[in-house]
## 1
Amino acid sequence: NAGVTQTPKFRVLKTGQSMTLLCAQDMNHEYMYWYRQDPGMGLRLIHYSVGEGTTAKGEVPDGYNVSRLKKQNFLLGLESAAPSQTSVYFCASSYSRLEGKTDTQYFGPGTRLTVL
Amino acid sequence: AQKVTQAQTEISVVEKEDVTLDCVYETRDTTYYLFWYKQPPSGELVFLIRRNSFDEQNEISGRYSWNFQKSTSSFNFTITASQVVDSAVYFCALSDWGAQKLVFGQGTRLTINP
């Protein structure tokens, strides 16, 4: 059971480039989330999904898009990266319908993104 | 809107001292969850505890204990007989009952000196 995994672990982009971060979970969780962590600010929710094929905006969605085509995967896209998007990105998942409602979010190891 | 405040940005103590991390939250919801997560220097987020708004019982897990008081909207975390391995950033977080979106505090960086 790998839990929540994120790909890649590190990435450096130039301003204007695009990229996709991949999050995968093998816990059969219904809900998935993308957060960003900036120094001194804790984690802030970017987008989330409460099921396959559904997505919703969080607190800081601008400049990001997401897709949840498969239950186990949640993709975060940056269409035109900006230096303000330099951050550590965390994916999380929660709530297994089969095992009963679990309300704890389990996090992936994070992706450190630098935009030059 | 929901908000979590961790007023202590950094705390430094000597090993074996007891230390309390404060967490104050704001929400208009009557049902919600409160969490503590630990982020060691390696960077991952480790779940420590979840408490729902109906359960005000304090909890103890080894050297860790949590004090939840709805009257003061606080969910404080105490480490007894601290150890160097407890050095980390600790986050308090609040979620709604529905989509369970987490709102995090700014975090408290705890340093335990030998």
## 2
Amino acid sequence: GIQVEQSPPDLILQEGANSTLRCNFSDSVNNLQWFHQNPWGQLINLFYIPSGTKQNGRLSATTVATERYSLLYISSSQTTDSGVYFCAVKESSARQLTFGSGTQLTVLP
Amino acid sequence: KAGVTQTPRYLIKTRGQQVTLSCSPISGHRSVSWYQQTPGQGLQFLFEYFSETQRNKGNFPGRFSGRQFSNSRSEMNVSTLELGDSALYLCASSLGLLAQDTQYFGPGTRLTVL
């Protein structure tokens, strides 16, 4: 099956800093989603982005499908951005999401 | 529009018991998927239901089962609980079966097996 690798595994920032999270995947995908898992465990949808670039406030994402990677940008980090960020993909032959292992982001005040 | 809801939110069981978790999808969504999250294995796909039929199944033993009702609500059952079944169980709903359909997750049920 498809492999999904996220980097870095852990990231500690000061409030106000910018960050880039990366997701590499091993095969073609027709669905890619970024999630933020809050401290209570819920996965919050950030982006559906199998290709191209999207922006939502301080967050933006870019997926280069031909090179099999996606980037999540967080600008002007806030303490409420802390949590785990997951990338999840659906490969062309499957319907379920395959998740990466996540990036644990800690934003310090 | 209300999001995906899951009940109960927390559950404590002992080894050998069975448990049933419930998931109500977003109104109009007909596909429901279940995932298990553990510190060691991360997020893993359990199964997917659409129109009351299991359409896809992950690599879990037969102790894990599920069903979907005509109103798209879904339940999953775990029989003969083991310590390793302690996990956060997440339910996700989507409009249908298209690969491009976005999945939306509920708050999860945290199961502890003692």
